[in-house]
Write a structure and sequence with these properties.
alpha+beta; elongated; 7 strands; seven-stranded antiparallel sheet; about 170 residues
Amino acid sequence: MKSFILPTLLILSIFACKKPGDTSYLLNEYDQPGITTVTLRDTLPKQEVLSNLFIQETKGIKAIYKSGRYTCYFEYQANQQDILKIINLLPFNINTRLSDTQCRNMNQNFSLNGKRIRSEKEIESSAFFWDINPEDFVYYECIKSPMRHTLLLDKYSNRILHRIDIES
């Protein structure tokens, strides 16, 4: 008799669980970002070093989600080693569990798979970042909480593609 109690309780607990309601209406609200233009100088913390650096910025967009999360994409020309040094020097929140003191060379080609978790509107607006041949770039990442920097450094020029993800 005791051997039937556990399976019976398990079966009853399965039927007692309430299935979540339809939440697709929430996804539509949160997965369509507002798109604005932005500059790198407006996004990064104010620094003396950044103001002295010559950056020829050609594109900058910001995808802002209603959840508070946003992503910025930039394309610019600059000395690549100087940019890595500046990102290394950026401040970060010391109360978080994860931050880097140095940009990490990922020693692999950039993966375009990250497009899967982006909205179509964000991908279209930042096509200059996603429509690339990953083999033409050296790939770096650096977490400076609450920012995650993804830097794609062109192997053949001073072109830099820079994505900054910010969680709110």
